[in-house]
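User: Quick one: structure for sequence A, then sequence B.

Assistant: Sequence A:
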Amino acid sequence: MCHVIVTCRSMLWTLLSIVVAFAELIAFMSADWLIGKAKPSSSEEGDNRTGGSQEPYRPTLGIYGRCTRISHMQFSRRDTLCGPYAENFSEIASGFWQATAIFLAMGIMILCTVAFVSVFTMCVQSIMKKSIFNVCGLLQGIAGLFLILGLILYPAGWGCQKAISYCGPYASAYKLGDCSLGWAFYTAIGGTVLTFICAVFSAQAEIATSSDKVQEEIEEGKNLICLL
């Protein structure tokens, strides 16, 4: 018989697991890992003639994507164009970034799997007599290690030609040059920290759902058990 067990700690762990998976996925897909050096407007002369002033824009570069601004001279209007610069895996700008993509993808796949499974922990608390919380916590720890490896390798690719074209000639491995870090990189770091927090907190979720009070409610014949 399925017993639906909802506790404050198990629900918090489930929500946090889902948030972490989405945060890492969004960061990985974003082009805002590096913010390039400021580039002048291509229609600067036209702006001077009309008496207007346009601030230089800063393109962004991700692991496999980029955002840049294109000018429509006829209408003196600018649009931001975002999309992948690499049509396939081999075209990713650096071997280090290829390794980063692999490690991050593996970590995110594990996190998404755990996030999916965590939704069902209200009804299923064990798999082959092993606590599903402990299994998921172990998987989250492994995912965190993959994410750390990816984030360590990522700055080693800052010396590739693609990064130099965005960050200037002084960019090299672990040196940003004229670039700055974008929100996606910080989101990936924050998500990695939260991944390990989730891994630790899974033990608390397991304790909460297997407490004596929960067992008493089960013995009383209750199928829906909600505890703080």
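Sequence B:
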Amino acid sequence: VHSNVSQGCQGGCATCSDYNGCLSCKPRLFFVLERIGMKQIGVCLSSCPSGYYGTRYPDINKCAKCKADCDTCFTRNFCTKCKSGFYLYSGKCLEKCPDGLETNNHTMECTSIVHCEASEWSPWSPCTKKGKTCGFKRGNEVRVREIVQHPSARGNPCPATSESRKCIVQRKRCQKEGKGKKNREEKRKKSSKEESKETKQENKGRAARRQNREQRENKNKTQPKKRKAPNKEPNTAPIDTAP
């Protein structure tokens, strides 16, 4: 270390020299040596750069280098990100993952192997043939299931998600679409006619009742009213009771 030590340093240095840069740092800052050609210069940083990890001591906080295969680390023996060509597993950088694990080229980590998982089968579908459920004796029925967990690169592949088998149904004729439509139309017309007939009968009954009522009213108007007979007054003459 050069003997020219200064107390009026800049950039977070507590003590420094013109030749070696920072010699010590202000509180809470990390001291790290940066190589410039054949020369190392001390600098003070708020956090350690990539490839270094920080350690705190009572007198100084230092940045130390990670292992050669480690890009970033928490301590020297615990890596958090590996350099290219290595896979991270439990804080270590490995060229090959242990048995039971597989490499993840996206995260550059060793991960557990994930096998495919499928749901339970659905109930069998109705027996059909060429999209129809009638007009045949032998057809096919189908059931399906869904994939609930897709596999990883080395995981077991997914099974089939659909299954088909032969089926037998009681033979029956298919109802023609035109005939069925015609029957529905006839039923609708018949129902409409019945409703119209009932409506006519009701209207006819109301008209007859109205006509009878009018006739009774006219008859009452044309007939003369009968005069009431005068009440005869009772004979109140005195009765002669002399002998």
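Helices lie at 177-222. DSSP finds one helix and 17 strands in the chain.

User: Thanks, that's what I needed.
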